[in-house]
Structures are given as C-alpha cells and as structure tokens.
Amino acid sequence: MTLLELLVVLVIASLMLALVAPNIGNVMPGSELKAFARQSAALLRELRSEAVSQSRIRDLQVDVENRVFVSDGKARASWPEGVDVRLTENALPSQWKDPFVDQPRLQFYPDGSSNGGELALSAPEHVQAEYRLSIDSLTGEVRIDTDG
Q1: Residue 124 domain-assigned?
Q2: Does 99 map to a domain?
Q3: Residue 115: predicted pLDDT
Q4: Smaller CB count within 10 Å for the chain: N or C?
C-alpha cells in the first residue's frame, strides 16, 4: 500500500464519520424510550410476582412531579429527561380509585389479578412513537404495545 492510498482511505473514513455522527443523536432518544418501556414493564411484572409470592396487595403510583414510580412509599424507578409518563384515566374503573390518594395507582392482588390500567410512555420532542403498557385486570398480564 502506498501512502497516497492510505490517505484516501483516511479521508473517506473521516467523511463517513462526519456524516454519521450527527445522526446517532436522533436514534438514541427512540432507543432510550424503548429501553425505558421494557424496564417499566419489568417493574410491573415484578410487582405482580411480589403480590402473588407475598400474598399481599402491591401498588404502583406515578409521581409525575418527581418523575418516579413509587411503591410502598419508596421510589422504585425514575424515568429519563424528555420522557413523559401518564396513567390514562379511562383505563382505571372509577370504583377502584382510592378517594384518599391524589393520583390513581395500579394495584396487583395476591391472586395474580390487578385493577387494570394503562401507562403511556412518550418522548414528544424527539420521537413520534408512544409505548403503552397495558395491564389486564383479570390476569395481571403486562403487555407492551407501540404506537407510531
């Protein structure tokens, strides 16, 4: 190989890096949202398992102000900047909402069922995708649906 060939290869590699590097930032928010959706689903499944194994009701509240999921008064997981989390109001039956709690919460019961609900996770500034974590009230099954 001559020095000229080596320089040509370095110039081509530099150009490719200059074109690809700015686009990496556009891909990361989408993957961060997907990873957070999987992490949130794992937390919900863990709470269901704890409810069954410990024979007690386990709940999860969404603390939007502090950007954390709260269970038993303790923060269980926080979410990244730029990600919005909301518990859709129409997902929880009104008779199952606790009148003494400001925010609705998801509950898992010792028989494996839950009060049902849906968490919507989105990152409006970066990606148009939204992940919905649906919790079946009869089985307590947690399912991740994507929109976008």
Answers
A1: yes
A2: no
A3: 85
A4: N
Question: Whole-angstrom Cα distance, residue 57 to residue 16?
Answer: 55
∠29-32-37 over CA atoms, to 5°? 125
Q: Which two tokens stand for residue 73?
A: 């008064």
For residue 34, name the pLDDT band (cuts at 50, 70, 90): confident
CA-CA distance, 66 to 30, in Å (whole number)? 22
Q: What confidence tier does 9 reach under pLDDT thresholds 50, 70, 90?
A: very high
The model's pTM: 0.72
User: Strand 68-71 and strand 58-63: pairing?
Assistant: antiparallel
Q: How far apart are the first and last CA of the chain?
A: 49
Considering only 23-27, 57-61, 111-115, which range has the smallest mean pLDDT? 23-27
In a domain, 70, yes or no: yes
Answer yes or no: are the C-beta atoms of 127 and 29 closer than 8 Å.
Answer: yes
Range of the domain at 36: 28-92+104-147
C-alpha 80/C-alpha 67 separation (Å) is 8
